[in-house]
Design goal:
Elements lengths: L2 H18 L1 E8 L14 E2 L3 E4 L11 E5 L5 E3 L8 E12 L8 E6 L8 E4 L13 E6 L11 E6 L7 E13 L6 E5 L3 E5 L7 E9 L5 E9 L5 E8 L9 E8 L2 E8 L8 E13 L6 E14 L9 E3 L3 E7 L5 E3 L3 E8 L4 E9 L6 E8 L4 E4 L3 E3 L4 E8 L7 E11 L6 E10 L13 H11 L7 H7 L13 H13 L17 E15 L2 E8 L3 E9 L6 E4 L5 E8 L4 E8 L8 E7 L8 E6 L4 E6 L3 E2 L19 E2 L5 E3 L7 E6 L4 E6 L5 E3 L12 E9 L2 E10 L1
Parallel strand pairs: 12-21, 13-22, 24-31, 32-40, 32-41, 42-48
Antiparallel strand pairs: 1-11, 2-5, 3-4, 4-11, 5-10, 6-9, 6-11, 7-8, 7-10, 12-14, 14-19, 15-18, 15-20, 16-19, 17-18, 20-22, 23-25, 25-29, 26-28, 26-30, 27-29, 30-31, 32-33, 33-38, 34-37, 34-39, 35-38, 36-37, 39-40, 43-46, 44-45, 44-47, 47-48
Helix pairs in contact: 2-4
Length: 727
């Protein structure tokens, strides 16, 4: 803003002050008495602040105060008094280099002589002018919280946000105006800044004004002026706040001519505003004619006058607080929107494609939307068209096509990005889809797991006839072309891939959530058991015959499967996916038959978290529901046994086939066997020197596979071990 306009606005702002207020100079500094680089007497200069003679100001000339932009320190004035002041104005001249950022300086104030500075006089971005070639004048009314205070100090804060450059400050002056009465109210802008989109339509901005009143008989009339410079800016309306919303009690009149607005609010009869805060008292609604480039303007509030609710209309002592409002008038812009934020292409077979309609809209009322480039971060989703123009209020149809491949299928997700000339470009939407029938996906559900192994077994055993799509999915040997035949080699490639989570060419199997189990009564339970001593058991209990199972869980270290309590028909494979940090466990019955309902304990050498993927296949190739029981921590073996005995062996042992033995026991030793539910399944008392158990319970039947507790008691001594029974 030219210096002449600033001086004119300053004169115009303070015109009523000169007429009715006693003026004094509360503080003044032109740095003439300073000896560079030291500051004037009483000043405190931080590192990066100094006085100098370079580039004198157009005012007093000579010395000025300089700040280096990279220094985050302050320059503090001596203390001064504003006692009796009803209004005060700070002015100074300032010049900055182009590399000194506008947001690198602010001015704060203290009312305790410079101990703390909680009051912001000029915020970052307003204490420094835009121009850089010469000195510019800054003028601002001081906040009302500084008025009538006896120990005030100012602090110029360099925020250290510029890597280079400097500012120079000169001719600092603070004028105080003593009123005949007491300041009893402050009228000010409630906000410091805002932006307005220009042009036709319903584009307006609300600029609220607040009023703070202290103890008075009440205020029955208020008058004030607002001024701006931008010719395209105009007043649309003034909206009353709740306190003055009654048209019968309050009369609102205003006159807007060019950039000058005069507002008069007058109470009728006995209408008056008592002490309190009114935010907003009134709200200015502004609009602007269309501009081609964004423009900045400043609304200036001045000439605030109030009348007390007395017969003589005594002055209410209303002063202006925050007197400036920074307004940015923006050129009309298109508004980008889409019909939804997420889209789903559904299930698509490998080799086929399906498209989803994404409707792009321009909800603006006067600017064309230019979509310049549309891209996808997942190559399985392609977009057309990639560009186009959307008129105001119109839309453009964009089609996203999902085409899964034989190696990239399963649950897929991606984002579609739209580059355009509207706000917040690029914009994006999310899209998902599920590819089915890729490499290894014999079931055609989009995942490759133990279900596909069960299918492959039935293909090899000629118990199930493969469709052409299943042939393409499971014919894996020689990898990857196949030989149009099914045999154990195809099964081996598939089972190894499921266990490792990737194919021999290091292509990962599709990630997915575990498919849901069938509805019905059949269910499986899984339980994680920490036995102690770096032994971990994954217990699977199933109440229906099963042909296979699979678990995937996070694990801090490779937890290779050690053994399982199932019979020899079960093929158990495990692997560790280092990329995902997961252990994978796969088990299936190799002969195509099913295991009878029961319990299976899978012993691991490392811990695992709750499975994120758990599925169990029953005897007729259905998935059954899997539920997890709370994990169990078993007590360790006796840390300090009070009975000498060798541990039982072999461990694990096959129930009804092996003999579990503990030699060299005193005659009369009581031996008991308990299952993990605490039920006693066997009890005996030794007659000779040892203990033997064939894995049968007290009824002579073989116990179920799983963990058991062996407890020995002799006189007042005991000893316990855990043993694993296999079937």
């Amino acid at each position: 803003m030219p210096a002449s306009i600033v001086l004119f606005l300053l004169f115009w702002l303070l015109l009523p002050v000169a007429a009715g207020y006693a003026q004094t100079t509360a503080f003044e500094e032109d740095f003439t008495g300073a000896v560079p680089p030291d500051g004037p007497a009483g000043w405190i200069l931080g590192n990066g602040w100094k006085t100098g003679t370079t580039t004198p100001s157009s005012g007093s000339g000579g010395n000025n105060l300089e700040h280096s932009g990279s220094s985050g320190t302050s320059a503090v004035t001596p203390g001064f008094s504003l006692e009796g002041a009803g209004l005060a104005t700070l002015t100074y001249s300032i010049r900055r280099t182009g590399s000194y950022g506008r947001a690198n300086l602010r001015v704060t104030a203290s009312i305790n002589g410079g101990v703390t500075f909680p009051i912001v006089v000029l915020g970052a971005g307003t204490a420094v002018p835009e121009a850089t070639s010469s000195y510019r004048d800054i003028s601002v009314p001081l906040p009302s919280s500084l008025l009538d205070k006896s120990s005030v100090a100012l602090r110029f804060e360099g925020l250290g946000a510029s890597s280079s450059g400097n500012i120079r400050i000169d001719d600092i002056r603070l004028i105080a105006y003593a009123t005949a009465g007491t300041v009893s109210g402050t009228l000010q802008f409630s906000e410091s800044s805002g932006s307005l989109i220009s042009g036709t339509g319903d584009h307006t901005i609300d600029v609220p004004l607040s009023l703070d009143l202290t103890a008075l008989p009440g205020v029955t009339g208020i008058q004030f002026d607002v001024r701006w410079l931008l010719g395209k800016l105009r007043l649309g309306d003034i909206v009353r706040g709740d306190a003055v919303s009654d048209n019968g009690s309050w009369t609102l009149r205003y006159d807007a001519s060019g950039g000058n607005l005069r507002v008069v609010l007058l109470g009728q009869g006995f209408a008056a505003l008592p002490s309190g805060r009114y935010d907003p008292l009134l709200t200015l609604q502004l609009r602007a004619d269309a501009v081609t480039v964004s423009q900045n303007d400043t609304l200036v509030l001045s000439n605030a006058v109030g009348a007390q609710a007395l017969s003589d209309g005594a002055d209410a002592g209303i002063v202006v607080g925050a007197a400036k409002y920074a307004l940015t008038v923006r050129a009309p812009v298109p508004i980008f929107s889409v019909s939804a934020s997420t889209f789903d292409a559904g299930d698509v077979d490998v080799g086929a494609s399906d498209s989803v309609l994404v409707r792009v809209k321009n909800t603006a009322d006067q600017a064309d939307l230019q979509v310049t480039n549309t891209t996808s971060d997942n190559p399985l989703f392609t977009v057309r068209p990639r560009s186009g123009t959307v008129a105001p209020g119109d839309s453009m149809d964009v089609y996203v096509t999902f085409s899964p491949s034989s190696t990239a299928f399963g649950r897929q997700q991606g984002r579609i990005f739209f580059a355009h000339n509207g706000d917040k470009s690029p914009s994006s939407v999310s899209i998902t889809g599920k590819g089915r029938g890729g490499r290894g996906d014999a079931e055609g559900d989009g995942s490759v797991d133990v279900m596909d192994i069960v299918h492959a077994i039935d293909f090899v055993l000629a118990r199930l006839t493969a469709t052409p799509a299943q042939v393409a999915a499971v014919d894996l040997f020689p990898f990857p072309e196949g030989d149009e035949a099914f045999d154990v080699r195809d099964l081996t490639v598939l089972s190894q891939a499921v266990a490792r989570g990737q194919w021999p060419d290091e292509v990962f199997l599709p990630m997915d959530v575990a498919p849901a189990g069938k509805t019905g009564d059949a269910i499986a339970h899984v339980e994680r058991i920490d036995e102690g001593g770096s032994r971990y058991v994954l217990r699977l209990q199933y109440d229906t015959p099963i042909r296979g199972f699979q678990f995937i869980a996070s694990s801090p270290a490779p937890g290779a499967s050690v053994y399982t309590s199932a019979d020899s028909r079960v093929v158990l494979e495990s692997g560790y996916d280092e990329t995902r940090g997961e252990v994978r466990i796969v088990g299936y019955v190799a002969d195509g038959e099913a295991l009878e309902a029961g319990i299976m304990d899978i012993v691991l050498s490392g811990p695992m978290d709750s499975p994120r993927y758990a599925t169990v296949i029953d005897g007729v190739r259905n998935r059954i529901a899997v539920q997890e029981r709370p994990p169990t921590l078993l007590p360790p073996d006796d840390p300090n046994p009070d009975m000498d005995a060798q541990p039982p062996y072999p461990n694990p042992f096959y129930a009804c086939s092996d003999i579990l033995r503990i030699p060299s026991l005193p005659p009369g030793t009581e031996a008991e066997i308990f299952d993990m539910l605490g039920r006693r399944v066997f009890r005996t008392r030794t007659e000779h020197s040892g203990f033997e158990w064939d894995g049968c319970n007290t009824s002579g039947q073989g116990v179920a596979a799983g963990l058991y507790i062996v407890r020995l008691k002799f006189e007042d001594k005991t000893r316990t071990w855990r043993v694993m029974a296999l079937r």
